[in-house]
């Protein structure tokens, strides 16, 4: 998504969409693990979501203990 719109003049909107997607993913995973978003990100690190959203053509699953 970001590569497709990299030449766009509305990058602020694109960054907002990325933020909303990351926050939604974090909330979903935190609720799944009966935790808060802050505790979830502290435990697993925000790099987990960054890696998930920056991978282009690889599909992988996330497994939690």
Automatic annotation (TrEMBL):
One of its GO terms (cellular component) is chloroplast. It is found in: Plastid. InterPro entries: Domain_X, Maturase_MatK. It comes from the Eukaryota. Keywords: mRNA processing, Plastid, RNA-binding, tRNA processing. Its main location: plastid. Residues 1-59 form the Domain X domain. GO terms for molecular function: RNA binding. It holds the Pfam family Intron_maturas2. GO terms for biological process: mRNA processing; tRNA processing. This is Maturase K. The gene is matK.
